[in-house]
Amino acid sequence: MVRIVGAPFDLCGRAAGSRTGPAGMRLAGLRRVLQELGVGVRDEGDVPAPLPPDGLEPGFRAFRAFLEVASELADRVAAVLADGDFPLVLGGDHSLSAGSVAGALRRFGDRLAVLWIDAHADLNTPDSSPTGNLHGMPLALLAGLAVEAGGTRSAEWSEAQRRLLAGERLDPSRIGWLGLRDVDPPEARRIRSFEGSFAATMHDIDRHGVVAVLERLSHWLSERRPEALWVSFDVDVLDPVLAPGTGTAVRGGLTYREAHLVAELLHERLFGEGAEVSLVGLDVMETNPMLDTGNTTAITAVEWVASLFGKTILGGR
Ligand SMILES: [Mn+2]
Question: Which residue in 10, 72, 93, 118 is the catalytic one?
Fold first, then answer.
């Protein structure tokens, strides 16, 4: 059973508006599309998300609100997983994935791996971030990366890690990235230093193609042998031509065909008998209908989710 949880929170992104992302994806027919594939679906509504107090600017200053929503989301995800169901989280900005993945970590601990499908690495700490926006930091938080002593926001950062992680951090060797093309120098240094992690950039996809890159991903999974995989999908991995409705669009993303081939190949590897590892949860983040044209981005995101859940052209392979 897929249980949809909306997380309409956007105070930690670059541009407000992704709080309407869950509504955009529901209007694009998410539930119906999954039902047509024979998937059981229940929409559980949204987690409560506070409105910005007067005068609050986006970014780290929304830390308290972030921690409240992310903690609630972690609890919700952990509860869905405890029932043996599949959490499908709709964002909202990407800071919230610190909450959803933390919920999965509570359930699976070091048997969990994460695939981050995103133009960005989201691996900044408060002292390396050029913007201070928490939506660029969730993986650093989950991996337990520390702010240097006395560095920016170290007290809040440690508090968030204590509260969300409860001692169970995501080891960097269990993080995979797909679609990277806008990575800050400190993030690139970290990824290069993370032994055993997986990173496929747009260059890799240009050079070798989606099929070969997904084979490399399979090889990585078979080496790491996680029991469970969480996929975090940031719509900005798609080219802005396809997905203009997002706060940090970067040119040169996945084409429509590449994106669907990624989803279809993931489906073959992650679902059913003989799956290499089972997909246990998904979040779809950073859809911002306020920046969109005609809800295109949410529609594209829903089509991608359908392919991930096994939609094919002829109803079979
Ligand atoms: Mn991104």
Answer: 118
